[in-house]
Amino acid sequence: MAVVPEHRRENLEPLLVTTGNPDSIVSKFPLLDSAITETLRLCALPGSVRVAGRDVEFPLDNGGSFRVSSVEMVMLDTRVHNMREDFYPEPRTFKADRFLPGKDDSTDIPKIMSWGGGPHVCKGKVFAHHVMMVWAVTFLQQYDFTTHDVLPEIDPGSWNVIADPAVDIAIDLTSQN
Ligand code: HEM
């Protein structure tokens, strides 16, 4: 978020539409781009359902196995991927810069599974990410905010792909105008 203030007085209009280079807002605010991906890594709940095309037997760590029969529906827990320690060191910690590209513009860090994957990957992911970027830039141009709360756990009763916090987070907002 530290990269945002220097762009505060800039005309946002060209960034609100995706004509031209749709990645323009991403390249202007790489830290915010990374912070949004990091938020989705931590807050997204499983949303990918598949139908088994044949009987499958999954081996379990305890020596047993878990059987899925043909045509049964399966929801994979994508959080197992998103919380992998070997992919994302200190996986429970929010690190805004975790997904920042390296000097050569590459990023070795594996993609998050919050959008699902394969042929049925979320078709709105570029749009949704873009809207979150525009919302955050617009918000930070208009308000300063602070919070004294520690980020809460996610609400286990959450029912959508983005989890709710277990308790409300108090935020002090100050308008810049
Ligand atoms: C933060 C916001 C969003 C998240 C986290 C999200 C996540 C997901 C996930 C996990 C799936 C299942 C993918 C899979 O089965 O592998 C999905 C599917 C889908 N999403 Fe999203 N989504 C979001 C916003 C949107 C928006 C804004 C749109 C449309 C404008 C959209 C359109 C779709 C469509 C059409 C599918 C079905 C794709 C298919 O079955 O081929 N999503 N989304």
TrEMBL record:
Question: Which superkingdom is the protein from?
Answer: Eukaryota
Q: Which GO terms describe its molecular function?
A: heme binding; iron ion binding; oxidoreductase activity, acting on paired donors, with incorporation or reduction of molecular oxygen; steroid hydroxylase activity
Keywords on this record?
Answer: Heme, Iron, Metal-binding
Record's SUPFAM superfamilies? Cytochrome P450 (SSF48264)
What cofactor does this chain's UniProt record say it requires?
Answer: heme
Residues that coordinate or bind heme: C122
Looking up InterPro entries in the UniProt record yields: CYP450_sterol_14alpha_dmase, Cyt_P450, Cyt_P450_E_grp-IV, Cyt_P450_sf
For this chain, the family text in UniProt reads: Belongs to the cytochrome P450 family.
Question: What is this protein called in UniProt?
Answer: Cytochrome P450
